[in-house]
Amino acid sequence: MKVWLLLGLLLVHEALEDVTGQHLPKNKRPKEPGENRIKPANKKVKPKIPKIKDRLSVDSTPKTPSIMMQMMDKGRFQKPAATLSLTAGQTLELRCKGNKIGWSYPAYLDTFKDTRLSVKQHERYGQLTLVNSTAADTGEFSCWGQLCTGYVCRRDEAKTGSTYIFFTEKGEIFVPSPSYFDVVYLNPDRQAVVPCRVTVLSARVTLHREFPAKEIPANGTDIVYDVKRGFVYLQPHSDHQGVVYCKAEAGGKSQISVKYQLLYAEVPRGPPSTTISASANKVKGGDDVSVLCTVLGEPDVEVEFRWIYPGQKDERPVTIQDTWRLIHRGRGHTTRISQSVLTVEDLETIDAGDYICTAQNPRGQTTVATTVEFS
């Protein structure tokens, strides 16, 4: 019995020595309690939501809130969308918050000084009201706050509002034109617009040449269609000239627009290109003399003339006549020639001297002179 007991103790002692003599691998460390738990592989991880500062930094451009409101039925107000469709005959009332408000609306309403339009400034808001609206009123309506110092005011870009309104009217797909034929000038250095605007936003509009008869595609490269402007020629050239018209289809009906004559005008933009000449620079007493001032310019740019002449201080009677016309200079190029003629009859000694002509257009002025003297 004692032998078996001693043998058992020896076996236990050897087993303990084997355990204490083992070494852990160099790249492993003893596990902490609970560290042997296996994490499930299909655990869902919630996406990190950026803080408010992070989200703002993505689009740092602040959006200016509109100051415009539209009056609805029963005295309700709401901010108008970028585009609205209203039925002709409806009353339109827009209000813009501010004690000094400027307004812009279709030029048609100003051209004819339409009494249907009323613009008022109240203590806290500006008000625009249009009654008995028609398809011709279709266009952009906008307002802005004004920052004034004394009588000088400037636009406050932080306070603006706008909406483009389509006034739909039975039988009118196109916005009515005051004429049956219009001229569009094509300049090589700026866009040209054939103003085929519609009263129905969903209308399909195409551009056509009268002769040879064919549709002109709006391919997005040379010509694009803008529902607020019409067909836009991005880079006009002489091949575009001719007579064109537009065709619109909406609600199963179609309509043809007025015709537009496209004229190419290759004239540089800037102050007037001016020349001056006299019928005679050497004269005798009792002669008549005419001094001609001529400007070649863009077809749609008006020119004003002013004269300074020797007998002006003495109130010498003279005749001044201004005229203009369009001329074609080959390859279909169209130019406006503006002329002013100053005529002096029965010349006297006080009429001798410098005749000075100043021609002015919206882009500047040019002064030229010629001398008339007695021989």
Report on the structure:
This protein has helices at 2-20, 52-58, 107-111, and strands spanning 68-71, 77-78, 83-87, 92-97, 101-104, 117-121, 125-130, 139-149, 152-168, 181-186, 192-194, 204-209, 214-216, 223-226, 230-233, 242-250, 253-256, 259-264, 273-278, 282-283, 289-297, 304-308, 319-328, 334-344, 353-361, 364-374. The strands form 6 sheets. Strands 10, 12, 13, 16, 17 and 18 form a 6-stranded mixed β-sheet that branches. A 5-stranded antiparallel β-sheet has the order 2-1-4-7-6, with no helix packed on it. A 4-stranded mixed β-sheet has the order 3-9-8-5, with no helix packed on it. A hairpin with a 3-residue loop joins β6 and β7 (125-130). The protein is built from 3 helices and 26 strands. With 375 residues, it is mainly beta.
Q: Can you give me a brief rundown of this structure?
A:
The model is unreliable at 19-28, 31-41 and 49-62 (pLDDT under 50). The protein is built from three helices and 26 strands.
Instruction: Tell me the structural class.
Output: mainly beta
Percentage beta strand: 35-45%
Determine the N-to-C terminus distance. Answer: 166 Å
Largest sheet, in brief, is:
6 strands, mixed
**Any idea what the radius of gyration is?**
41 Å
Q: What count of helical segments does DSSP give?
A: 3
- In round numbers, the mean pLDDT is 82
| Global outline | extended
- Number of distinct beta strands: 26
Order of helices and strands: HHEEEEEHEEEEEEEEEEEEEEEEEEEEE
- Name the poorly predicted regions: 19-28, 31-41, 49-62
The helix fraction, in percent, is under 10%
InterPro entries: Ig-like_dom (IPR007110), Ig-like_dom_sf (IPR036179), Ig-like_fold (IPR013783), Ig_sub (IPR003599), PDGFRL (IPR042495)
Subunit structure: Forms a complex composed of PDGFRL, TNK2 and GRB2.
Signal peptide: 1-21
Keywords: Disulfide bond, Glycoprotein, Immunoglobulin domain, Repeat, Secreted, Signal
